[in-house]
Design goal:
Layout (H helix, E strand, L loop, with lengths): L1 E5 L3 H12 L15 E3 L5 E5 L5 H6 L5 E5 H7 L4 E6 L5 E8 L4 H6 L4 E5 L2 H11 L3 E5 L6 H5 L4 E6 L3 H5 L2 E10 L1 E6 H6 L1 H13 L4
Parallel strand pairs: 1-3, 1-4, 7-8, 7-9
Antiparallel strand pairs: 2-3, 4-11, 5-11, 6-9, 6-10
Phosphoribosyl ATP (PRT) binds next to helix 1, helix 3, strand 9 and helix 7.
């Protein structure tokens, strides 16, 4: 049996064409079922639905043989025990620093003010500000980061941006672009050895179907 870990939403949707290229069709719609294990048209392939941040953990510990996870999630996880053969070029966005409209970020940084930064991505944020030599107090949040500068919880946030509409709707502006984000295929290292005959063709089919 081959178990593939996916999160509901954009990663599931954008992985479907890659699965199709490998001849795999998921037989149930995650938005319509309460099941967490979905069968496919291949009797020896199943999909498990987990939170996006849990995909690397499932694959690392063998709860799934492979999975699809954002670079953001993989950088926070650390990637231990994971083979990352492919950048799938799906679920694309960027990681950025954003502040409230009217907050003079450049001046605050220049003056050496200690910035309060709220984020779900503390590892990436810590590294980013350390590289710039900017002193920050990091505040760990699990969602709705946009609220932090508006309520005075933080001066800035580090968050993912795709269309930019969420920032605009909350009167925030992007002041720094940290990195481009896309999702990667992750494979359990032991599974890759033990199930190589089944996993290799699958990885190759995925590779052939990566969007430009
Ligand atoms: O939503 P949930 O709390 O269940 O979990 P999650 O947010 O971890 O999962 P999900 O499915 O939302 O995201 C999975 C992966 O998709 C992330 O790990 C990213 O690699 C990738 N991705 C691509 C994004 C976005 N684009 C994105 N726009 N993840 C989140 N967003 C959010 C962003 O955090 C912000 O709140 O969308 C909002 C901004 O969108 P725009 O279009 O208004 O700029
Ligand atoms: Mg989300």
């Amino acid at each position: 049996m081959i178990t593939l870990a996916l999160s509901k939403g954009r990663i599931f949707e954008e992985t479907l064409p890659l699965l199709a290229a490998a001849g795999i069709e998921v037989l149930e719609d995650p938005e319509k079922t309460r099941k967490l294990i979905l069968p496919t048209n291949q009797p020896d392939v199943r999909v498990v639905l987990v939170r996006a941040t849990d995909v690397p953990t499932y694959v690392q510990h063998g709860g799934a043989d492979l999975g699809v996870a954002g670079k953001d999630v993989l950088l926070e996880h650390g990637g231990e025990g994971l083979y990352q053969p492919l950048d799938l070029n799906i679920a694309k966005c960027r990681m950025s620093v954003a502040v409230r409209e009217g907050f003079d970020y450049a001046a605050e940084v220049r003056q050496g003010t200690r910035l309060r930064v709220a984020t779900k991505y503390t590892e990436v944020a810590r590294q980013h500000f350390a590289d710039k030599g900017v002193h920050v107090d990091l505040i760990k949040l699990y969602g709705s980061m946009e609220l932090a500068p508006l309520t005075g919880l933080a001066d800035a946030i580090v968050d993912l941006v795709s269309t930019g509409k969420t920032l605009v709707a909350n009167k925030l502006v992007e002041v720094e672009h940290i990195m481009e984000i896309s999702s990667r295929l992750v494979v359990n290292q032991a599974a890759l050895k033990l199930k190589r005959d089944r996993l290799r063709p699958l990885i190759d089919a995925f590779a052939s179907a990566i969007p430009a």
